[in-house]
Write the structure tokens for this entry.
Amino acid sequence: MKTVYADEMFLLNLIINYFILLATAKLCALPFSRARFAASAAAGSVYSVCLLFPPMQLLATPVMKLVLGFVMTLTAFGAEKRLFRLYLAFLAVSAAFGGAVYAASLFAGQQLAGRLYINVSLRVLLLSFAVCYMALTLIFKRLAGRQARALVPVSLSFCGKTAEFSALLDTGNELYDPVSNLPVMVLDIGEAEKLLPETLIAPLRTDVMAFISATGTSEAYRTRFRLVPYSAVGVGISLLPVFRPDALRLQGCEEKNMLVGICANKISGSGEYSAIL
């Protein structure tokens, strides 16, 4: 029977947990904090050491492991908007690393000692983790690059105010102004709040005609808006208030031949983008 030392168990799990968190951050294209990652990895290591003691092995249930994974994710990344996605990514990376270690141990002709301890050499362990880490990094970096190309950084100026946000490049968006024949970028109300006063935002939330009436009471906005008909999935023919921006830059390049329409709702539930091109 192999003797397991608590300090070795703690250090081994600390290293493994840290690399799993690092791979999760790379997978989700997020910046990372070494201090937060170290604290999260240490929490997982303390849990692993506790399981070495028979009275504490009652905590080695799937539910407790899932709870621990959530606590580690929250500790490492904070209260992110995409916390649940990060949690799922953390579990997926953990499973991938575990599978890689198991495959490497079989390839090396070694057997696992049990569910609480990995009885493989340090060389096999590090090699399997390195290979899995590089594979995850290469695969998801390429996927993240494809996703990043679909999001366009935008800088929009209107009536002395500026908003910067990301827009989704949607090839299915064929909205044009029938008068000027210019394409229309659809902006959600969250970004519109940065450009317009509350006296215009309030009526926009309820009725587009009330919004147009409200613009008529302001010298600055009286002639800046007009209505464009549009249709969308689940929506019949409706009207969208549009304006010509004072300045519009897409990916750092000036764009003069585009109008901006304002949607009365949030466009992206996750907040990844605030407009559709």
